Amino acid sequence: MIDELQGLKHLDVLTLTVRSTSCFQNLDSHHILLTCTLILCLRGDYSENPSSCLDLSPVAMANMKYLNTLQIEGLRDVDSSWKTPLENPSSFLGLQFVEVGACMNLENLEWLVFAANLIDLNVHSCYGMTTILGSNTKKAYTLTPFAKLTVLRLSRLPYLWRICEHHLPLPFLKKILISGCPALTRLPLNSSSAQTSNLIIEGEEKWWNRLGWEDQAARNAFLPCFRPCKGKNFPGTLMPQYSQKAFNNIF
């Protein structure tokens, strides 16, 4: 199938759903396909194979320079597979939409520090996740994470206790949607982090009341942003929106 696609001389945009390591590794030798890939879905068969894992090829990721949308779902052992992209930060510069779900052993998404143009992040049902960004991002890298982020969705992450270890400037942030994250007691916000007049923070009222803040001034600044809600989930709803936005960015 990959060889047949390689013969399409006028191929401009390619959307791939990958379910095996061998399929992903075969892309290394197909440069044209890599440069056309706009949307990539990596899916493991977690219902039948509890050790489902995709070993992502750093060569393929490096050549996907137009990759706009990435969905990772059901990869229980993806924790070791995502170390190599940190050596090639340019792999993620085009990423704007990321959804990660049901990756049971995934502890963090440290590589997102290199997704400088990320605008929408949805993470759900990763029961081993403790942080979004790793603990060394501020010391190791000069990039400002989430500088263009507008929407952050976090749901069903019972052990997530922080997003990152320091406050972030988030000038474009419009929505923070939190559900089923009882251990998350701090947001990466202080009184100068975001434009509070345009920000909505949605979550359970009990969760909001447990949040810690840098000082009372910060809490007062973000209090008008809060919208109480009962438990919600945000999985599996974003890919059609991502796809349309991705195509709009090209054409």
Automatic annotation (TrEMBL):
Domain of life: Eukaryota
Annotated source species: Prunus yedoensis var. nudiflora
Gene3D superfamilies given in the database record: Ribonuclease Inhibitor
Name of protein: Putative disease resistance protein
The Disease resistance protein At4g27190-like leucine-rich repeats domain, residue ranges: 76-187
InterPro entries listed in its UniProt record: At4g27190-like_LRR (IPR057135), LRR_dom_sf (IPR032675)
Pfam families named among the record's database cross-references: LRR_RPS2
